[in-house]
Amino acid sequence: MRTMVYDLVIIGGGINGTGTARDAALRGMSVALFEREDWGAGTTGGSTRMVHGGMRYLLYDIATTRLSSEDAGRIRGIAPHVTWRIPFLWPLFPGSRFMREATEAFLSAYDPMAKRKGGLQHARLSREDALALEPGLAAEVEGALTLDEWGCDVYRLAALNALDAKEAGAELYPHTEVVDVLFSGRDLRGVRARDRITGREWDVEGRLVVNAGGPWAGRVAALAGATCALRPGKGIHVTFERRIGNYGLILEGRDGRTMFLVPHGAETIVGTTDDDYYGDPARVSLDITRDEVEYVIEAAAYALPQARQWRPIRAWAGVRNTLFEWGVGEDALSRRHEILDHEERDNVPGLISIVGGKLASYRIQAEEAVDLALKKIPRPAAACQTGTRPLPGAEAQPDFIALAREIPLPPAALERIWRRHGSRTRDIFRDAGPDDLAPICRSEAVTPAEIRYVIEVEGCRTLGDLFRHAHVGAGSCDGADCAAPAALFMSELLDWTPERTRAELDAFRDERWSERRPVLRGATIAAEEVVRG
Ligand SMILES: Cc1cc2nc3c(=O)[nH]c(=O)nc-3n(C[C@H](O)[C@H](O)[C@H](O)COP(=O)(O)OP(=O)(O)OC[C@H]3O[C@@H](n4cnc5c(N)ncnc54)[C@H](O)[C@@H]3O)c2cc1C
Fold first, then answer.
1. Which of 135, 362, 407, 489 has an alpha carbon 20 to 30 Å from 344's alpha carbon atom?
2. Domain span at 256
């Protein structure tokens, strides 16, 4: 039997890897995509979850702000169901790093960029107007400026890119790590993959290998004797269990660092920090310190004192895959991206890497990577379609009260499910019986029908995958109510042994606990340990 030789073997299923797989498959290339965990489980999931233009980079890297604003506009257009507008207030306090005039000049420069992504121009608010919109602002507030950004369900964005790639013919291998590379002479000709669940190892041949390993890119390149110079940076976020304000807020940390308070679903995200980090990116959430959590909450409470009254339910982290620079502070590192041709750089033909960049510009980064691939392995190919072709489910939002007559679930639940799957919601519930509709997780409106869909259509293989694909355990109880029923249902569908089911539950709870632990204080740690069992 002849072994299949793919045009592209892609390592890493974050937003860059899934975006590249989608672009290449839509242009007619044969693609195999390997991800050691799940789509978006790395830096993509650890981001602030905004398709934003990078307003801050205007100060030192205007090209990146312009590029990501432009691409953000396209991403919004192809993924309206998993992105949403977030109006922000930038409250002005006496003694803040930026004076009112400087802040306004800054936003005037950002306005044309905001327009590229469909945002409104900034407006100036008096103290009274600012307090009328956000009554919880600290009493010293002198006024505010407004701006528009876009929130995003980043796990869904990555999963939808992967799904579209699959539907265009790509072969997807989640939970499969590339453990080595294969050479033919000095040419890279493929990879050795290991399924992390079954332990199976096999060789895969490709005309070109694309390293989309995010903060792991240096390690992946090293397998082939090549280099990617990164300066990885750790950023942490704190999630509050509810909306603690009416709008997004631009915050200032005690050291002047700009941070965001972002309404996200029913919750609020605050972050982020930025510190050099050379640990294992897969374990970064275990390295969150109490001081980091306090630094983030302090910034929120400075603008919105009531933040201290609300319950933080988790802290989580990501590692930036920033390009290496010497002699600059972490904050001032450029967020630009590069597509590296390792034949030219390291004399390793057959390997290219996507490094640096932002989630908000993933689509153009993927397009450039596929353009380079097509130069190296010329073949007839269709034009890039990813800027205009909608992602799966990206149809106009329906009237949810009318949809509830078609699918017997509360309109609010349907809206939540639509925000994950868009018009594929109808596929999920086609032929669904009463048992398929009984909620497994009430706070996130997860039903057996959705779990079946993400397993059968999106290829979920672990209980943890259900967190990212269907929001199982993503509510404030962290899965205390829904993890066990979801595990039992999944075990029936995938024919798991009792031991495997137990192990999946333990792994799920450990993962949730790793994010819970950093925000607990005093006696609550003991109380939660008892609940955790
Ligand atoms: C704290 C923080 C906040 C951020 N906020 C924003 C924001 O709000 N907006 C924005 O636009 N950008 C933001 N960014 C930047 C953005 O998150 C990244 O640019 C983007 O997610 C990088 O995606 P990626 O696919 O390159 O990396 P990743 O998402 O890390 O994907 C790489 C994948 O490769 C896999 N992998 C590694 N090694 C192997 C192997 N050997 N075999 C198989 N798979 C492997 C990993 O498991 C991982 O899933 C933020 C970043 C951080 C850290």
1. 362
2. 83-151+231-324
